[in-house]
Amino acid sequence: MSVAHPDRYQWAWLLFGFWLLPAYADLPPLTHGLTPTETPEEAPPLRFPTLDDEIIDIKDLKGRVVLVNFWATWCPPCRREMPSLEQLYQMAGEKGVIVLAVNIGEDIDTVFPFLGQVDPSPTFPILFDSDSGSLAQWKVKGLPTTFVVGPDGRLAYRAVGGREFSHPDVVRQLLDLLPDEAGK
Q1: May I ask the CATH class of domain 28-183?
Q2: Cα dist. 19→22, 30, 46, 99, 102 in Å?
Q3: How far apart are CA 88 and CA 120, in angstroms?
């Protein structure tokens, strides 16, 4: 018994059609809730280069609230939530909220042109996980997935799927993790 397999041209059309889908479909709104972790455990290791080849290590950010967003340019909800990550960073960065966007499996030649299309353009660190090794360590099952690490270095919140990170409810959840004097 043989099973029909699409040839390479059929795959190309499938992928091309997938790429166009968001442009023609009515997309649901991004949500704006973060789910508390049931048992806050220590954040897994995270150490990657940025666009400027600077190495950022999450262990150096202990004492701050760190939002870690796993994303890729081919992911429609990832693309949609990127401007709200920048808005969040602009609103809460001075108060001690760090935003890290970890690109999964892509290179600078793919990511850089995409970032030029984002309005407002991201000023927070974009990290590159070229071999996608962090997905298993952070137990990421799909993109986008976001974690919030509290000042104690433990996972406080998780969000699977696209979010409106600049929504007041999300901003409040993040600021509430800061020590009293920093979040005010």
Answers
A1: alpha beta
A2: 7, 19, 30, 27, 21
A3: 11
Q: How many residues does the chain have?
A: 184
Contact (CB, 8 A) for 55 and 63? no
Torsion, CA 168, CA 111, CA 57, CA 160, rounded to 10? 40
**What kind and span of H or E run contains 69?**
strand 65-71
Report pTM. Answer: 0.84
pLDDT digits (tens, 9 = 90+) for 139-166: 999 999 999 999 999 999 999 999 999 9
Q: In the chain, where are the structural domains located?
A: 28-183
The residue whose two tokens read 């960073």 is 89
Nearest-angstrom CA–CA distance, 96 and 65: 6
**What tokens does 123 get?**
């000023």
Distance, in Å, from the CA atom of 80 to the CA atom of 153, rounded to the nearest integer, reads 28
For residue 2, give the 3-state DSSP assignment: coil
